[in-house]
Amino acid sequence: MKDSFVIRGNIIYSVDKDNLSVTEGGYAVCEDGICRGVYRELPDEFKEFDLIDCGDKLVIPGMYDLHAHAPQYAFRGLGMDLELLDWLNSQAFPEESKYRDEEYARRAYRIFVEDLKNSFTCRASIFATAHTEATKILMSYLEESGLKTYVGRVNMDRNAADYLVEESAEFSLRETVKTIEETAELENTKFILTPRFIPSCTDELMKGISDIRKQYGLNVQSHLSENFGEIDWVRELCPWSDFYGDAYDRFGLFGGEDYKAIMAHCVHCSDEEIALMKERGVYVAHCPQSNTDLSSGIAPIRKYLNSGLKVGLGSDIAAGYTLDMFRTIVETVQVSKLYWRLVDESMRPVTVKEAFYLATVGGGSFYGKLGRFEEGYEFDALVLDDSSIRTSLELNPGERLERAIYLGNTSLIIMKFVSGREISLEKSAQ
Questions:
Q1: Among 35, 85, 136, 147, which lies 20 to 30 A Cα-Cα from 380?
Q2: Is the pTM for the entire model greater than 0.90?
Q3: Whole-number Å distance between alpha carbons of 267 and 301
């Protein structure tokens, strides 16, 4: 059967945010791209499946990046001394304007997709630019990669440089519909509505995006409460709203029963905003790298977990400097320790187990039944060879995973699967 096999190795996944399931020398079964469970002894019904014997290697779920800006990948690691709004004007907007040139888009997006393909990430939610043809180029490259992604053509008809801002709300909406319809046949790459953030979108544009959402049944991604200056700006632009998230909600773009919404950052959310996020089922894309690099602050992730919010992790390329989700896990733990020590001692730090859960199950749930090796889950998996990390200690698989998260990188990956299909890795692209 297509996409049906058994992987033997040290199988590790999150049972919940506090506990790992660890099966040493176990068998993870994939049938037609769906997990059929993990076993210490392989049941007879699966013994005819192809066996991939990974010996003593680690087998973990794929990871999920809830927030990345593909056109910014070219300048990662630059402009990190600036705050958000200055950084947008001096780094992000000039670079994104280059994507009106389709040849440039091909060169830049090819690099991004190759590196994403070779990363820990199996699925991602990605911002493109306000250029229709360039967005279609990105989506076509991602389709070829075998990864499963959401991609949005960015909407922005105000408060951006003249060379980047769209000519009108009508134009932005028309080009959005064009992109949706011309990419509808893609299997792995789906469109997601992407108003950049409230300051860059007029009320007319937001209303039109909401109408498109209802017509096509699409999900939404944007930014929320990242920076104090941004929050003040929203208050000036939308005096009729009670708070930042309320501005999205009044246009029907803040999640609900019939669609999902990702809001990146959520560094400075009020209690009222948190309550509305929980009610609407908003996904928080926690991006610790960019929140540190742009001096935005520390998102109170423990508070969000205690409040029952849906939380996943995001690289936020290129305010974040790497696609490596292991780095994002580590920095999630580290910034939570600073929040606990310096801001609110009642909010205990996030543990490695919890951050691993957020990178797998937490973010994975946005895309479906993902992030665990349990019956009925889609089979996204990574096989890791951590033998290059030398030690004199005898470590169990759980300890080896923790060590790999802190000390390893994408060079540890020797196999990668998305919905049971192996992704061809090209280590030269790293």
A1: 136
A2: yes
A3: 9
